[in-house]
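Give me structure tokens for this 142-residue protein.
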Amino acid sequence: MFESVPSISRDRSLSGQCVSPLPNPTVWKRQLEDRMKSEVVFKVATQFSRFPGGRRLSHGSFSGEEFRKTVTIPLLDDYETVTFDLSGTVGFSSGFLDEAFGEIGKLIGLSEARRRVRILASDDTEAIQIVWQRIEDASNES
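Here you go.
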């Protein structure tokens, strides 16, 4: 079953959140699989903010950059399957969606993202399409 993730603390440091892969891909993959939990659902509106901000930290609170560093990357590091539920928010800027989710394409590639990431948005289906377009675009850049 899905595991719930606690809400993000605003006092949490944003540095050092990304784990670098080990030199040997076979060893790294085995270690990653050994420590990964099965799946999680992260509800953006209740666990991050109902009012997501702009792209960068410098654009204010609850930015896409903050989300990527404190939510997206840590969840992908810890869980095999991550569902991001965008329902219940007031809306998203394209900059937030690009920064929060687009980097997934660079980090794990499009095919791995399609296998491991789910995006839900019961009240904004366009956001789902934008997220997947950003992931695909970023995977083509890497």
